[in-house]
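User: My advisor asked me to double-check a structure prediction for 8-oxo-dGTP pyrophosphatase MutT (NUDIX family) before group meeting. I don't want to rely on an old file, so could you generate it fresh from this sequence?
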Amino acid sequence: MTIPKLLMWLKLRSMLCAQVALIEHDRILLLRSGGNMGWELPGGIVAPPEPPEATAIRALGQKTGYELRDSPELLGVFPDLERVTPRLYFAVFISCNFTAPSKLPVSSSGALRWFPRDALPQGASPLCRKVAGVLVD
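Assistant: Sure, here is a fresh prediction for 8-oxo-dGTP pyrophosphatase MutT (NUDIX family) from the sequence you gave:
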């Protein structure tokens, strides 16, 4: 099954989130939302007809202020490793080519930090750990 067909199948039968792993040297950008949420990749829920890549890029800008200089690469589609929501999947994109914000967006709540890919913080989501592991290998 091709990636576009897989993404269409997931959208019809499941909830799909799209996230971006920004990489700078050996570090990855993580976001901690308000409340007791742990560290996660910036992103949002895909609402058709918006494609997953567009959702990831839009949510990245809204939540962090970072802008991509080119199209991100699809790293993969992963199931919810915490099994919080049945049939929840994450389309994770990766980019090393971006522009940093001059200031965080007003809508940003929580913390935004760069972490070494091989030393993620306590509270990093299982998905963050999986993505960082794929990138380190």
